[in-house]
Amino acid sequence: MAAAARPLGGVEVPLPGSDRVRWVEVTVPSSTSSSPPPPPPSNPLPVRNASGCHVIVDDPQAYFIWRIHQNLPNVLEVIALFACKEFPETGLHLVFKEALCPFAFLCKNEVQRAENRYSLYVLTISGVAYLCNLKSPFPYVSGSIFPQNELVEVNLQADAPHGKITAVAATSGCLITGRHDGSICCYQLGKLDPNAPGFSNELRDDVGIGRLWNLMSRQKVIGAVQDIAISQVCGRQWLFVLHMDGNLRVWDLVNHARVLCHNITSRELQGTNPSKLWVGEANDDKQLISLAVLHQDTLVPDIYTVAVCHFHFSAGDRNVFSPDSSMHYIRLEEGRLVDLKISSSKLWILKEDGQMLYDLSHSDCNMEKTSTYGLQEDFVAEQLFESSEHALDDLIWTNSSIFSSTKDQNVYFISSIFLRRLLQPGVHHSSALRETVLEHKKYLSDHEFQSLTVAGLKKEIFTIIESMGAAMGSTATAYYWKNFCACFFRHWCQCNTPYGLLLDSKNDVLGLIRKSSVSLFRSLEGVEQLIYGWIQGFSDDSDKLNWTGMNLSDNDTDCEILFEVLRCMSHINHQLGRAAAAIYYESLISPVISSDDIICQLLKTLETGCNPTLASSLMAQLGVDASMVKKQLVHKSQRKFAVDMLLSLHSLRSRSSNWAGVLDVIEKYMTFLTPHKNAQKSTSEGICNVNSSILVQASSQVARAMFESAFDVLLLLGYLVNISGQQLGLKTIQVSIMQTDVARIKQKLIPAIQDILAQWLFLHFLGTTPTMPPTIEDFSSRLSSLHIGNKDGNLLLDGKLGSSDFTLASLLNFPSSGEGQDFLCLSSLLNPSRLNHLVWNFFSLTLWGKTGEESPVFSCLPTHVISVLLRHGQYEAAENLFGIVDTYSSNKKVFQNPQSSDSEWCSRLHLQGFCLLIRAHTELNGVLKEQKSREAIRCFFRAASGQVAPHSLHIFSLETGFQYSGEYVSAAVWKLHYYQWAMQIFEQYGMSEGACQFALAALEQVDVVAGLDDDEHPEPSSTTRGRLWANVFKFTLDLKRYQDAYCAIISNPDEDSKYVCLRRFVIVLCELGATKVLCDGEIPFVGLVEKVEQELFWKAERSDVSSKPNIYKVLYAFEAYRNNWKKAASYMYRYCLRLKKEVNLEGNRHIPSVLQERLHALSVVINALQLVDCAYAWIDSPYKYDDQGSQYKRPRNVLAENSASEISSDSCGLQFCINVDVLEKEYVLTSAQYLLALVNDKYKMSGSQALPNLVDVLIQENFYDMAFTIILKFWKGSALKREMERAFVAISQECCPNRVGPSGAHVNASNFLLPSSEDEAAKAKDSPVIHQFKGNSQWEKLEIYLEKYRKLHPRLPVTVAETLLYTDPQIELPLWLVQIFKGGRRAMSWGMTGQESDPATLFRLYIDYGRHAEATNLLLEYLESFASLRPADVINRKRMSSVWFPYTAIERLWCQLEKMQSSGHMVDQCDKLKQLIRGALMSYLKQVEVDSEDVLSSIPEHEMQSSNS
Fold first, then answer.
1. What's the confidence (pLDDT) of residue 554?
2. CA–CA gap between residue 973 and residue 961 (Å, rounded)
3. CA-to-CA dists, residue 1338 to 629, 1029, 1291, 1298, angstroms
4. Which long-range contacts (CB under 8 A, 24 or more apart) does 541-548 make?
5. How many CA atoms lie within 13 A of 1409 on its CB side?
6. pLDDT level of residue 78 (50, 70, 90 thresholds)
């Protein structure tokens, strides 16, 4: 029977999580491990993919699933499945020494009756049988060895003279083998020890004398055993044996007696050999048991025939089997049989039709009703547009025609469609997806891949698609996705090869065991069966409609009309393809454009075909020739569609008297598409088990089918409206629709079908959208972590959040079973009928709650569903659902039956506002964050405006944290409480804008509450206002709206709160660096200036001096703006003191910058005081600040004193006021310290250091200008001269050749007035303090400074010369210094007289320091000069006392020469010097005598007489 001719009776429902089993590998030891492996038997059982499921009736009932893979024949996979528990995360990998037969049997361990103990029977191809006693849950560790005491090993081929094993079966405590020679052996494995008597028994046809007679007679040889099966009939175990010759023998396993031998061959089975046997469950009521035998054609081995026969049995002490005369045959012409299951009345056949194509058919044992099952391969292919060759073409054509005006959004939209379908449960497969990712050169280890969340998977897949070049356009993106999905589908089919069927005949459960997954089947009923049946090719007769259980009316015409309507829908579906529904669905979830616009574009596509602008994109992707062929095919398809629709519409019109009748049938059909509503009195909450997962998966399948069918109805109705104004038809075929019918479609049918679509979209979205892991510590997650009132099930649900197979619907309440039994207590898997019933009950419970009394209007989203999602942190999903509802509500296309209640409306807005608030908190995009925050504010305000809001919102305390005790009877008081709660949650999530708005709203509400009775006030109004204004201040400050924050401060009626806010205002502005707000005058601070100043000073004293912004500078600017220069100077001077005392210069690497800052501050203080009247140009002593503030400041390492404190008491002792002169002195000292710090970072400034020492250090570092500046600034009179001499002594010592000292660097610095900005301060950082004279050597510097300062102290040259001579006795005085003593050539005519630095002084210095030659030469020079005067100067020489020579010094020189000569030291030189001196003096004395006589002779006689008298 062809598949197209059979209706679809059911579809596959995959078990979520079955593809993610983590295997625990355990090695089974073998006693023959040391011996070489035995040779393979001559007729071994074939090695193939095999699987099975053994149902163990227990409490709870267990399903043990096993698998053997052809590529790993020595490994047995075992999964213990319990319907009332989760699908197990781990399974057992039993690794044997050699390959296994495709057989395994698991049962309850009847010998060891301990709890959760099971027996496993396996057989190797060499005939070694194993009995493994398992525990569940499996306590084994991966990589371990199976316990030897739990293992029994028997070699069945060791000493058996019989043929090789060809068949094997087992029951509890017994292993049965059939052999090639036809013999059957029973082994009491698990009951008896292998060495005990009676362990093995052979089943024989006769015993005793009868056996002897048979040995003597000649009988026909029994054929080889082909297959054996064990079945329980009337409480007894029966063994059915199929032999090669067609004989079927039945044995009683209790007494080992044969009860039946029947040949099942027939004329229809000629030319075939029996190969496989299946035995169904016995029907005790009819006393009938059914068998299925597989026959293989001897000529064509690929052709199989299944023969179904029946046997009657009689109950009693001795059961008697008799064959039934009827036998049915099923010919499998194509494909390989994979598995077959038979029950008492049904037969299922799973066969392989081709490569990765499978077919599962179902029929009763009498072959009266036959149907097929839809396998998951078809569903996955359809979801990924792999079901046909043109599936992706439909997507491209439709998408391009819709989004031709918004090309930039095509890539995202197409990717979103594929990603959503690729990751939905039922399609997503972990192993297949990983293989696909690896194939695209993206390596991920298995651990890394398993740890990826849904968001991580999306990111990885997007990366692959983008690397292919998806940004080129929508057409390229679609083809790249096609390649990726084709690769995934190929891996999916490889990873999900069907191995066998799963059958629980007692509970009527049918499933499918695949290579790496497990699934069940559900039946189709009602309209769903009609939908799938039409897809499979239903004929349009009323019998088929009645077969679905749908009853439109007693009139056959309605059935005919319905089938014509379905045919029209089929035409539309075929023309647009599956992509149309996918695009429409995606537009509702992530609305790139309006869903109404999509419908309009789809209808336009139906009328006109493809968009002409698509040709360029197709040409770029496919080429010119291929694109032309594609366009021709589309044009041909469009013409065929138009003709087919015209004929179908004409047929509709002809079958009904008018279009109203057709619309009546469509409306009746829509009622079948509407979810049923029924009351659910009991529910099961917090469930997460296999049955709940099956229910969720089945619900999503039903919702998808119903959504697509409703979408086809919507397109048909829209198509009818569009063609109503057109003249369609030929001369013999006319289609005309009245305007009244068009109005009915627009006003009633289209809104109704849109409401139906929205409901199925809602249900499908819940069933297919994976949950997200909690990403933020919101109120709900923190409350859930306390586990208050939570059951264990709820804790289990929270642990599964974020898993790809755990969808939103898994969080909801589940209905009770059909018999009223708690859904959680079901120990067996759901059978198809019960599952179908629970699916519709689940829809009703989800849409309308437990009682079913809520409004079915979808515009009011079921709040119980949203509350569950919010309770588990699924805010993104809740936002999507709210977005869907808002889209329908804004379009006003939702079918408005009864209006939703005000309570439902308020509840929805309340939950939506909270959801948007959380989403805004987690949003990274600034624009979206602000948009969602505004929407949340709007929702909360609208929720508070509802009249019944006080009575309806308190039930969501667990979801949102809003609690309302109800003691406030006034709505105004409740609204005040609600606004304050909204303010708090906005503050909690950092949304200051919303918090501020609700604080202001609460302030307005306080005025309303103030007019009520005092009994209704929860607290005094003034207290509430103060608190709310303080909150307004906080929020506006967070938003950096400083003007509003100041207004909130001055509006606060609570004085204490006002000043607290003011302090906070000042502190925050300083921390944010927004101190300009305080100083620019934009905020007036009326009446608060003194408070602001106090706060700034308080913060300045308690802040680090290196903090930015510097609060002292802020205080300076604050006072300077108000022209209070004296206060401004005092604050800056306080800053200088802090810099000196609180900065530990000894360990600070930034000493120059600190000193630079002090210089700037001092210059600012000086400049500020210069702007004050001279009579008031002083500031208070800093000592009172120290006394006041020291007790509040934190401990610091400060210097005991600084160099400035060494100023003499005359200039700056303990003064109570500080003027400009003191500040200038401190500026000079700081400048000196700065220069020293620049050149020597190791220089330590000690408090005990005096000013002279500082001057010495400056001279050592060659900072002569700064040294002389300090001398001139701090000393006067004789002290000044003394310090000047000390300075020149030090400078002179630096010039001595034999004295090595530090050479100072030429440091540039300038005036240290504080610039007006920090940038200018940075530029002035390297400028010189004092102009430093530059010279090529120390001698030049000495000459320059001596020439500069000898006018202040004329004796300085003497000090310099004496220092040089003392320091270096061998030094030769520089010529310029000698010239200073000589005073020039004109001075020589007066002898050696002059100022303090005269030649005589130099002569004496020479003598004092033993420079006899220099002294002699100097004396001779002046004596010769005296003698060689010009005639014009002779008259001056002859004046009285006009010429003077140091006679005493000359005498000392003479005496020293004689002394040296007498001592024998330098006798000749001394004698020569004496001769020179003697000669010069003799000439000088003679000249003096002559001059004296000339003078006396020139004096008149009377003057001489008077002088003598």
1. 58
2. 18
3. 100, 73, 8, 14
4. 544/7, 547/7
5. 19
6. very high
pLDDT digit string, tens, across residues 284-326: 888 889 999 999 888 887 888 999 999 988 876 666 788 887 8
Element (H, E) at 1078: helix 1076-1079
Nearest to 873 by CA among 971, 806, 782: 782
Amino acid 1333: pLDDT: 44
For residue 1312, pLDDT over 80 is answered with no
Cα R_g (the chain), whole angstroms: 56
In this structure, the strands spanning 117-124 and 128-135 are antiparallel
Task: Kindly compute the dihedral angle of the four CA atoms of residues 263, 268, 270, 275, in this order, to the nearest 10 degrees.
Answer: -60
Q: Contacts by 655-664 with C-beta closer than 8 Å and gap 24+?
A: 655/557, 655/560, 655/561, 655/564, 656/557, 656/561, 658/738, 658/741, 659/737, 659/738, 659/741, 660/740, 660/741, 660/744, 661/561, 662/561, 662/565, 663/741, 663/744, 663/745, 663/749
pLDDT, mean over the chain: 80
**Between β-strands 144-145 and 22-27, what pairing exists: parallel, antiparallel or unpaired?**
parallel
Higher pLDDT, 684 or 542: 684
3-state SS class at 882: helix
For the residues 865-888, what does the mean pLDDT come to? 86
Closest CA to 121 of 153, 167, 164, 90: 153
Q: Give the pLDDT confidence of 461-495 residue by residue, as tens digits.
A: 888 888 887 566 677 788 888 889 999 999 999 99
Residue whose pair of structure tokens reads 């022209």 in the numeric block: 1123
Whether 332 and 305 have beta carbons less than 8 Å apart is answered as yes
**Rounded distance between C-alpha atoms, residue 23 and residue 79, angstroms:** 9
Question: For the segment 926-964, what is each residue's pLDDT rounded down to a tens digit?
Answer: 888 899 999 999 999 999 998 888 888 888 888 888 887
Give the tens place of pLDDT for each residue, 1136-1192.
988 887 655 545 567 788 888 889 999 999 999 999 888 888 887 655 545 444 433
Question: How is the beta sheet containing 117-124 ordered, strand by strand?
Answer: 100-108, 117-124, 128-135, 151-155
* Three-class DSSP category at 942: helix
**Which residue do the tokens 């018999």 mark?**
819
d(CA 1488, CA 1391): 12
Q: Are strands 370-374 and 8-14 parallel, antiparallel or unpaired?
A: parallel
Inter-axis angle of helices 750-768 and 690-723, to 10 degrees?
A: 150
The tally of CA atoms less than 13 A away on the side-chain side of residue 355 is: 1
Rounded CA gap, 1314 and 1157, in Å?
Answer: 8
Q: How many residues does the chain have?
A: 1509
Helix 1151-1170 with 1220-1239: angle, nearest 10 deg? 160
Mean pLDDT of 421-440: 90
Query: What DSSP line would sit under 1276-1342, residue for residue?
Result: -HHHHHHHHHHHHHHHHHTT-TT---PPPP-------PPPSSHHHHHHGGGS-SSPPPP-SSHHHHH
Q: Which residues pair with 684 in a beta bridge?
A: 814
For 9-21, what is each residue's pLDDT tens digit? 889 999 998 988 9
Q: How many CA within 13 A on the CB side of residue 315?
A: 11
Per-position DSSP letters for 186-236, written without gaps between them: EE-BTTB-TTSTTSEEEE-S--THHHHHHHHS--PPPPPEEEEEEEEETTE
Quick one: average pLDDT of 244-249? 92
Query: Could you give phi then psi for residue 1218, rounded to 5 degrees?
Result: -120, 125
* Cα→Cα distances 1240→257, 1271, 1287, 1307, Å: 116, 22, 21, 12
- Comparing CA positions, the residue from 1132, 1144, 1139, 1168 lying closest to residue 1155 is 1139
Measuring CA to CA, which residue among 1034, 1071, 1068, 1039 is closest to residue 1049?
Answer: 1034
pLDDT at 805 over 60: yes
pLDDT score of 1387 more than 50 = no
Q: What is the pLDDT of residues 793-802, one digit of tens each?
A: 555 666 788 8
Beta carbons within 8 Å of 316's beta carbon, 6+ residues apart: none
Q: Which of the 8 DSSP states describes residue 746?
A: I
Q: Pull the structure tokens for residue 1468.
A: 């000749």
